[in-house]
């Protein structure tokens, strides 16, 4: 029998960032934990750079599954995670978000005699064409602890019949991450000088979602929209490009308009600094929608739906879809926004709260086994 209480499964950039506060909480509460990296992200700039910068311990395991079709990638993770969990015998396994790594971690755990905790539970885009939507629905329904970031996300899973005693509203660990790093980012990051940017005189862009960049026409419309926003505001659009998007630019042979500056994916401190100083953020990223809202920077989401409607409700974000004119109109609308909204994602204590709940609570499975 091993001493491991909690196994943390992660695999991609946003999971590393959003689980960093959970890992720190394990350290501060003296909980024995092990980190299993699936290897879904493996390029230095999507992976190792975050472990270094966030001062996280090296993962105890790295399955190195890399890129592949959804089925092969998820299956390889499932086999590898199961083997490790059988050796380590943790009481609880934590996954975060909605990637294939999360799905594999959830399925592997649900077949073993251990509890599953889903960090960032209850998000729904109601778009079943998105692989992430299926991943989060399956994971929520397999989980014993559902850590919902907001009251609204908790309501969504209640409506799906998830028992009340599995649901915990904790806030989103993205707030913990932003608060733990934003000042340091301002002090340490030299990215504005490096890219010769002036605060509030650039827009920041990210676009990597499969439904946007894997469709040539849609990706071109998005790029045209971004370029027109940059021209209209007379600023540069700075676009740290995700490898999936970069590969598609090559494959489709798209020439990027001059007013869009493609740069490498940024490390967390540099990216936080870019976000904080942008006039406006244009994105299709889940985490970036949240961070823009937390940092008080207006956001335009280049998607048809969002599983972060709280950002729209507070006035921090708007949905533009992927058409050029809509992107321009939405940017003009959000550029005039008064940025005095309240962050809806919690107080920055989510990581500590999650580990406290896991350590203290009697979950339904444990209650079932208690003799009456
Ligand atoms: C994945 C998640 C997505 C999340 C994103 C975070 C799924 C289904 N998708 O998308 O929800 O928003 O991570 O960034 O889990 N590649 C590299 N280096 C890497 C990783 C990937 O070059 O380290 C390239 C490969 O060409 C690969 C492509 O990016 O085929 C896509 O990678 P993959 O992990 O399949 O999906 P993401 O688009 O990163
Ligand atoms: N991010 C980063 N560098 C970049 C782009 C994004 O550090 O160049 C961070 C960003 O701060 C956020 C997370 O990556 O915390 C979002 O990840 P991504 O957009 O890849 O995935 P999603 O949130 O859409 O799943």
Q: Kindly estimate the percentage of residues that lie in beta strands according to DSSP.
A: 5-15%
Bound molecules: uridine-diphosphate-N-acetylglucosamine, uridine-5'-diphosphate
General form: globular
Q: Give the full name of the CATH homologous superfamily of the largest domain.
A: Glycogen Phosphorylase B
Our count of helices gives 17
Helix share, percent: 40-55%
Output the CATH class name of the largest domain.
Alpha Beta
Mean pLDDT: 96
Structure summary, number of beta strands: 13
- Class of secondary structure makeup: alpha/beta
User: Compute the gyration radius: what is it?
Assistant: 20 Å
Low-confidence stretches: 367-372
CATH architecture of the largest domain: 3-Layer(aba) Sandwich
Helix and strand sequence: EHEHEHEHEHEHEHHEHHEHEHEHEHEHHH
Main sheet: which strands, in order across? 3-2-1-4-5-6-7
Q: Kindly report the CATH topology of the largest domain.
A: Rossmann fold
| N-end to C-end Cα span | 28 Å
How many domains, as an integer?
2
Largest sheet: 7 strands, parallel
Organism: Haladaptatus litoreus
Protein name: UDP-N-acetylglucosamine 2-epimerase (Non-hydrolysing)
Pfam families: Epimerase_2
